[in-house]
Structures are given as C-alpha cells and as structure tokens.
Amino acid sequence: MAGSYPGFSWRDARPGEADLLSRLAIAGWRETYAGAMPDSVLSALESNPHQNAESWERRLVRRPPDRWAQVIETEAGEPVGFLWFGREEGRLPGYGGEVEKIYLLRRAQGRGLGRALMADCFQTMEAAGLYPVAIWVFDFNRRARAFYEKLGGKPLGRRELVFQAEGRDFHEIAFGWPAGLAAADA
Fold first, then answer.
1. Are 113 and 72 in contact (CB under 8 A)?
2. What angle do CA 117, 122, 126 make, to 5 degrees?
3. Are the C-beta atoms of 13 and 124 separated by less than 8 Å?
4. pLDDT tens profile 171-186
5. What percent of the chain has pLDDT over 70?
6. 135: closest CA among 168, 181, 170?
7. 55 CB contacts (<8 Å, ≥6 apart)?
8. Domains (ranges, CATH) in the chain?
9. For residues 156 and 92, is the Cβ–Cβ distance under 8 A?
10. Are 13 and 24 in contact (CB under 8 A)?
11. Which residues make beta-bridge pairs with 19?
12. What are phi and psi of 185, to 5 degrees?
C-alpha cells in the first residue's frame, strides 16, 4: 500500500529497514516526550528491547498479512515517520483493528499529513474487515489526545500501566472509532 500527500509519500517498509524504524521510533519518542518523561528513559532508548533494531527486525520478519508497516518520506526521500497498524492484538475486546504506532517527526507535523495517514490506514483496515479501530496513547500526551478526539476518536476510559521510571507510573488510554474515521468527517 502506498499513498501521498502534498510534499510527502508513504510506502510499505522494506525488508532490512528495521534500523530505520528503530531510529524513527527513538527520534519520535525523544521529540514528543522530552520534558514529560525522565531523561534516563529517553537516553536509554537504543538499548530498550522494544525500540532497538533487533526488535523491529523480528516484527518485520514475523509480521502477519493483516499487519502493515509504512514509512513516510518527504518528496526528497527523507524518512520523517512511520505507521505500524493492523489486527488488534487482544487488549481491547470488540475492536478488530489497531493503529499501534504512528510517529511523525516535528518537521512533518501540523500540515494535515497525520489526518491523511490515519484515513489511509483506516481505509486499509476497513477493507480487511478490521473494525472498529483503536489506538493507545500516553495519558499525558495532550496534543495526541486532542488530535484523536478531533478525528472523532472516543476515549474508552481504560488505562494500562506501561512502565514505571524514577518513581512515576506511565499509563496509556485507548481511543476508539466504533463507526470509523469517515464518520468523524460526516
């Protein structure tokens, strides 16, 4: 699946791009969570078993046909983000699809690209019968929460402890689109 938006395009991640996905995930975390998460967490991301290249390589190799990885690039071919989405993996009964990761570096934000990416991945999941759709977000990430609410996502009110660091608990909240993203545009 490929797509485009003025100044950007996206394509399926290729075998061997695990290092790229890792770098984009780490850069996304550092840009987004600076000041909200302890520096000790952000400075150790390269060794985090959920963010390192080996972890991404395993995900790419073992990816089932109903899970997609997309790399977002500028017109000049510079990677500025990625999407990881597909079948919901059992954390939210009744939800068929999940946008597990969406990372856009700051220089690609605020241009309507996020909305276009979400619409495209929702369309892909709908065609695969993966509805309704959900996404998890750190509860402190007000900007992302506002974005998902603007797209018609409804907070599902369920929080999960993701990890603890320096005496703080970090939780996620799920947003769901029972009627799909298109319903938000109606």
1. yes
2. 155
3. no
4. 999 999 987 665 445 4
5. 96
6. 181
7. 18, 22, 49
8. 3-185 (3.40.630.30)
9. yes
10. no
11. none
12. -85, -15
Model confidence, pTM = 0.92
3-state secondary structure 28-87: HHHHHHECCECHHHHHCHHHCCCCCHHHHHHHHHHCCCCEEEEEEEECCCCEEEEEEEEE
Asked if residue 132 has a cis previous peptide bond (ω within 30° of 0), the answer is yes
Residues whose CB falls within 8 Å of the CB of residue 88, separated by 6 or more in sequence, listed in order:
95, 96, 97, 98, 130, 133, 134
Residue type, 134: A
pLDDT digits (tens, 9 = 90+) for 59-114: 999 999 999 999 999 999 999 999 999 999 888 889 999 999 999 999 999 999 99
Which pLDDT tens digit goes with each residue over 6-51?
Answer: 999 999 998 899 999 999 999 999 999 999 999 999 999 999 998 9
Give the containing element (helix H, strand E) for 19: helix 18-33
CA distance 148 to 171: 17
Residue 133 corresponds to which tokens in the numbers above?
Answer: 């759709």
Using CA atoms, how far apart are residues 130 and 109, in angstroms rounded to an integer? 27
CA distance 103 to 23: 11
Residue 118 dihedral angles phi and psi, to the nearest 5°: -60, -45
At 116, which helix (H) or strand (E)? helix 113-127
